[in-house]
Amino acid sequence: MSNSGPYRGPLEQVDDCRWRIPRSYKPGMRVDGMIFASEALVDQIKGDQAPEQVANVACLPGIQQASLAMPDIHWGYGFCIGGVCATDPQEGGVISPGGVGYDINCGVRLVRTNLHYRDVKHRIQDLADVLFAQVPAGVGREGRYVFQGRKMDELLAQGTHFLSQQGLATDRDLSFTEATGRMTAARPEEVSHKARQRGAKQCGTLGSGNHFLEVQIVDAVFDDLAAQAMGLEKDLVCVMIHSGSRGLGYQVCDDALRSLRGVPERHGIQLPDRQLACAPIDSLEGQSYLGAMCAAANFAWCNRQLLMWQARECFEAVFGRNWEQLGMELVYDVAHNIAKLEEHEVAHGERRSLWVHRKGATRAFPAGHRELPEAYQTIGQPVLIPGDMGRASWVMAGQPGSMSQTFGSACHGAGRRMSRTAAVKAAQGRDIQKELLRSGVHARAKSWKGLAEEQPDAYKDVNQVIDVVHRANLASRVARMRPIAVVKG
Amino acid sequence: MYELYGHTADLGMRVVADSLEQLLLDAADGFRAMVLPDSSGLAGDESIEVAVPASTERLDDLLFDWLSELLLLFETEHFLAQSIELHIDGWPSHRTSQGSRPDTDAAASLTLRATLRGQRIDPDQWRLEHEVKAVTYHQLELCHRDGQWQGNVIVDI
Fold this sequence. Notes:
Chain A has 17 helices and 19 strands. Chain A is α+β, with helices and mostly antiparallel strands. In chain A, the strands form four sheets. In chain A, strands 7, 8, 9, 11, 15, 16, 18 and 19 form an eight-stranded mixed beta sheet that branches. Chain A has a seven-stranded mixed beta sheet with strand order 1-2-3-4-5-13-12, sandwiched between helices. In chain A, a hairpin with a 5-residue loop joins strand 12 (337-345) and strand 13. The longest helix of chain A is centred in the middle third of the chain and has 36 residues, at 284-319. The radius of gyration of chain A is 21 Å and the shape is globular. The model of chain A has no long low-confidence stretch (mean pLDDT 95). By secondary structure, chain B is of the alpha+beta class. Chain B has a single domain (2-156), classed as Archease, Possible Chaperone, Chain: A, domain 1 (3-Layer(bab) Sandwich), CATH 3.55.10. In chain B, 22% of the residues lie in helices and 38% in strands. Chain B has two helices and eight strands; from the N terminus they run ββαβαβββββ. In chain B, the strands form two sheets. In chain B, strands 1, 2, 6, 7 and 8 form a five-stranded antiparallel beta sheet that branches. In chain B, helix 1 runs parallel beside helix 2. Chain B is globular. In chain B, 43% of the residues are buried. The interface between A and B is large, with 40 and 33 residues.
């Protein structure tokens, strides 16, 4: 479906955080749509066809409870970005590549240090320069790690567990990564030769577009207990990395969309939008995509692990101590484009294993969930929300409201408010790098046009998004992070 | 002739030409421009032959598959074409003449064959602009309308 014009369908306010699209809105809807937003955000949300996409997703077989959307919702391919849906294999539930996205397991990791702003303020330029020189970023740039043949098979099957065997990840790194950096349902044999070719030299590279590596400081703490458990305190220097599965993941999605041509029809599934291509989870096609998607997710975790490894080496070079002495430990790593098999409560209090699709949405498990490391059992899972490069990013903690309302999910970022061409036009005559420096951010980018496209004004205000997530009890504020150096491709 | 435009967070391309072959050639130029806007220094010393068989009966999928092939060549070999010779096997000659109104489906028997002359580039030496993740199906179009071949495609950046 096209993104032309504003949404003109129903949006019934449920409370000050939720808006319903009733299932009576269009034929084929099996459940309601439910969008988490404030009144101010709803006006923006109605500006494109994203709510219509929420209604379309509600038509998918096996969908449970509601077709959900986070406050950073915006239009995407098939599924909106910021969308969450859970399907039940026992009810003919489907798996859909569009519900995961091209960049499978695009996600974020946060690394803390034991440095404070005062320790780095005279070295920020050096740090930015070294990170820019050493961390591969930008269009077409290859990394120093090459994975082919059997090594690629092992990486795809084992994720960061494979890197641990190579001495490129510690046990602690694994423990503080969502799913410990490995989805065991991965089937490397389902990953095509083309995907492997694209990914062979890209593991450990940042990419381009909205991917970044930032040096940040903890600007404000809102929950002392949770911040302490995460090892965060005011003015602490951290590194945030936003990247995904690179060309391997993009190709896996592309391959799946091709393979699924005609498949919904063969299974008697009527789709309101061709881009909601899907297959029953228990079908051959569904299992094939699942196996490849999990393998690509493992690749992405390895990518972020190697990016962190290289960042550690850069800090060692600048500060003259090894990364352990610098306290560069992983706070957490989250995926925000993925489908996961998780146990959730459905109707009548029954618990079922569901495939939860999160496309531009982050898992936000509350305190006590068995998948969380011991250190976070009492505070909930860290939820990492990148903002734009001029303003804040956020660290939140998953809350029980996520399990009862959104299958354990929260938002993933700010969302664009300007197209790339509009952002470049708005940047004409301006020096974005200088503007960022005036705000205290040392920016290094491989593409100056790319920097213009990613300028802060191109994005919505992430604080509005965070506010809704906090009030709806999906996740709560822990710390606000301010960038001081940004590396972009 | 191609025109690039912004589409939400991604890039789109509209293409208009007198023949199907020319449309596909112009689309290739548009793809190159997305990655490398200024290709004036690009050499044509290296040559690659490609064959893209139609994967479905839809003509728009041929455009999709063609651009996907160019993307794969760039991603895996950093190859960008400076010039292309292109022929579509199974495409009757009358369908290329201006003013005809051919039906625009029944692509299943076609194979696009091309000789690409260009260069395997070092990304560090060129001002590359956009990383194209994938060609999407969104608003994908390839048809003959108003006496012209018209195409539209959106790529995920």
